[in-house]
């Protein structure tokens, strides 16, 4: 007996022991990752209990996905969790003239540009977007430029509720910082510090992380998210890693990612950020470090020697004109390498595709880094960074965290090998189903627990409200039209004849 998969209940865990069958399924077997044709995954409660060609035991139901690929859900180490503002600046540069560095006269009166409700809403909306893209595990990241200082515990309490409602597996911790970079009157970047404020935020973040650890039936875990390295003082980093060691949680810290950081950290500490953290003795396998695009050979040696995981986010890097140098080279050095989305769209398939191209450009070789290597980085390596052998793979005993991709999509026909089809032919738009913890969270663009059409309208209003406030925190306070000019001159009324 086979049931059409459209009968699989959205937002629920099917009762009993059930199978999801399809043309292709990934299986992580003791001998390694394998591709099974006409296979199935058997699930009971929150776990995969079997994967192979045909389960002979008793089942409550068998749902057939047809011409599809069943694989592990993606593990997103730098998961977009706000209404992305980075995209506003891609054609509008430099960033410091576009509201991405506070002028001194705004820094003194910086305020929360979103209400608490808007902050909570954007997390819920972003979590739905991740599920639409087959992402089942997420470490949220958001911009701090529109904030009064760091992120708040209140919005992360709301994020924990949203994760539970939508069923996304998350590692949560508000971002905090003891410093920042501002523009003085002359437009020169200057580091500024408020250590007391940042240490206070860290204390609140640690209490939050401890409180949420293992909540929502195990969907929610704690993490530490100090903001980019140039906004952290030594005391903040020491205390962060001491808390993380005590609670056994991951720490994510952006470093080796850009020019502003390179200049600021060199000025403050006389070396690169990875070397500074090595000197402080805090580099460890607990650390997840986006983006490593400006890492030196010595920085990479520090990462390799200490088991640091680089969170590779090729889409945002490529849009900035940079890339890892390179994915293949870091792997050859033995560096742990997971993936993140970081920017809009939060599309891991697109990130694998761009990562593959950027790697081959950086290597100057057409055979560097296969589709399977990127698929492994987006699944297995992310799970390893989180020390979670029960996610990022499909094997008996693992969590039933699954993403199903359409292999009969009319835009990518003909299909070749399914993993190669995904990376060479598709984007995350071919994600048909996302299952987390044995529960169907997303089916054909519908996410249980959120009305996406209504949310889309609210997103646009909220985002336009934020854009209207850009002049307040942009150097020289030019009008919006000057900060973000249209691609072509606008014609707003019917031209007169
Ligand atoms: Zn990032």
Kindly describe this structure.
This protein is an alpha/beta fold and 497 residues long. The protein folds into 2 domains: 1-72 and 392-444, Urease, subunit C, domain 1 (Roll); 74-390, TIM Barrel (Alpha-Beta Barrel). Helices cover 34% and strands 22% of the residues. The chain has 15 helices and 23 strands. The chain has helices at residues 104-107, 116-132, 153-166, 195-212, 234-247, 259-269, 273-280, 297-306, 314-319, 327-332, 348-363, 371-385, 418-425, 452-468, 480-483; strands at residues 3-4, 17-29, 32-44, 47-52, 61-64, 68-72, 74-80, 102-103, 135-141, 169-172, 175-176, 179-183, 189-193, 220-222, 225-226, 251-252, 287-289, 309-312, 336-339, 402-406, 431-436, 439-443, 446-447. The strands form 5 sheets. Strands 1, 2, 3, 4, 5, 6, 20, 21, 22 and 23 form a 10-stranded mixed β-sheet that branches. A 4-stranded parallel β-sheet has the order 7-9-10-14. It has a 4-stranded parallel β-sheet with strand order 16-17-18-19. A hairpin with a 2-residue loop joins strand 3 (32-44) and strand 4. The longest helix has 18 residues, at 195-212. Bound molecules: zinc ion.
């Amino acid at each position: 007996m086979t049931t059409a998969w459209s009968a699989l209940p959205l937002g629920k865990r099917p009762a009993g022991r059930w199978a999801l069958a399809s043309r292709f399924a990934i299986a992580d077997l003791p001998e390694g990752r394998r591709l099974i044709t006409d296979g199935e995954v058997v699930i009971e409660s929150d776990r995969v209990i079997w994967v192979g060609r045909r389960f002979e035991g008793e089942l409550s139901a068998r749902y057939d996905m047809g011409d599809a690929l069943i694989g592990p859900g993606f593990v997103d180490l730098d998961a977009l969790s706000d209404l992305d503002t980075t995209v506003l600046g891609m054609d509008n540069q430099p960033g410091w003239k576009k509201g991405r560095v506070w002028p001194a006269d705004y820094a003194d009166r910086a305020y929360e540009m979103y209400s608490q409700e808007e902050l909570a809403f954007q997390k819920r909306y972003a979590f739905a977007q991740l599920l639409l893209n087959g992402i089942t595990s997420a470490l949220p990241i958001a911009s701090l430029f529109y904030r009064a200082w760091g992120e708040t515990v209140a919005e992360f309490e709301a994020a924990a509720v949203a994760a539970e409602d939508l069923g996304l597996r998350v590692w949560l911790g508000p971002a905090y910082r003891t410093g920042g970079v501002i523009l003085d009157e002359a437009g020169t970047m200057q580091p500024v510090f408020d250590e007391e404020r940042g240490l206070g935020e860290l204390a609140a973040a640690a209490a939050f992380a401890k409180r949420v650890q293992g909540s929502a039936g195990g969907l929610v875990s704690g993490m530490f998210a100090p903001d980019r390295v140039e906004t952290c003082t030594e005391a903040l980093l020491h205390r962060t890693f001491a808390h993380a060691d005590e609670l056994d949680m991951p720490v994510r810290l952006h470093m080796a990612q850009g020019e502003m950081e390179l200049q600021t950290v060199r000025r403050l500490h006389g070396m690169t950020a990875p070397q500074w953290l090595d000197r402080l003795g805090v580099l460890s396998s607990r650390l997840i470090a986006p983006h490593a695009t400006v890492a030196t050979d010595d920085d990479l040696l520090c990462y390799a020697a200490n088991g640091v995981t680089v969170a590779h986010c090729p889409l945002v890097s490529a849009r900035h004109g940079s890339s890892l140098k390179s994915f293949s080279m870091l792997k050859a050095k033995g560096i742990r390498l997971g993936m993140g989305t970081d920017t809009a769209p939060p599309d891991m398939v697109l990130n694998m595709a761009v990562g593959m191209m950027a790697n081959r450009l950086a290597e100057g070789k057409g055979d560097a880094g296969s589709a399977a290597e990127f698929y492994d980085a987006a699944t297995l390596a992310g799970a390893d960074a989180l020390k979670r052998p029960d996610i990022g793979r499909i094997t008996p005993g693992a969590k039933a965290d699954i993403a199903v991709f359409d292999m009969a999509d009319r835009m990518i026909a003909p299909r070749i090998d399914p993993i190669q089809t995904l990376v060479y032919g598709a984007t995350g738009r071919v994600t048909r189903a996302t299952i987390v913890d044995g529960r169907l969270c997303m089916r054909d663009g519908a996410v249980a627990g959120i009305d996406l059409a209504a949310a889309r309208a609210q997103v646009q209003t909220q985002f336009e409200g934020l854009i209207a406030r850009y002049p307040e925190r942009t150097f020289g306070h030019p009008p919006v039209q000057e900060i973000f000019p249209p691609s072509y001159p606008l014609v707003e009324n019917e031209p007169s004849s």
